[in-house]
Amino acid sequence: MLLTDPVTLENDVVRLEPLEEAHAPDLSAATIGLEHAWYTSVPTPETIDDEIARRSAWRDAGSMNPWAVRRLDTDRVVGMTTFCNIDQPVRHVEIGYTWLGVDAQRTAVNSSAKLLLLGHAFDACDAIAVEFRTHWHNRQSRAAIERLGAKRDGVLRNHRIGPDGILRDTVVYSILPTEWPGVRRGLQERLARA
């Protein structure tokens, strides 16, 4: 299976559905309350259609595989996630462009989605590395990535210029196939306790 293949992934908590326009109403509602996050890129209710179109265009170009995150206990789409910066010949991928609505944060949703994505990357797509990147100032995201068991590869200084002109330092993490069994067990244990 290719990292770019559209596929639905599901466990007891979430279903990751290939992103489509029909997800827009739930996604618009899920963006409410995320306006304060200057260090990450979350669409607004007014820009959600454009964001779906942008991610769909990247999917069509082969560089992204986007999903809507559906929380099964409410049957609501509560965010988005992707395989991005896909390098299929090398079988290297980043999990990124992820955001969850306020009601889904600090729940089992993120861990459950990451368990599905990592399992798909390593077990179905034979990835040699899964990478995560986040803004230096996004301490919540950095902590979540570290709780997964990803190892910090380093910091890309002045990596990007934000829309507001502020320079971004990007923290890079990764998980390798040999680390996946331990990461999987850690996620399963955390979800069992939740």
Topology, please?
Elements: E1 9-10, E2 14-18, H1 24-30, H2 48-61, E3 64-71, E4 76-87, E5 92-100, H3 108-124, E6 129-135, H4 139-148, E7 151-161, E8 167-175, H5 180-193
Parallel strand pairs: 5-6
Antiparallel strand pairs: 1-2, 2-3, 3-4, 4-5, 6-8, 7-8
Describe this entry's structure for a reader.
This protein is α+β, with helices and mostly antiparallel strands and 194 residues long. It has a single domain, classed as Aminopeptidase, CATH 3.40.630. It is 32% helix and 32% strand. It has five helices and eight strands, in the order ββααβββαβαββα. Strands 1-2-3-4-5-6-8-7 form an eight-stranded mixed sheet, with helices on both faces. α3 runs antiparallel to α5. The longest helix has 17 residues. The protein starts with 8 loop residues before the first strand and ends with a helix. The mean pLDDT is 94.
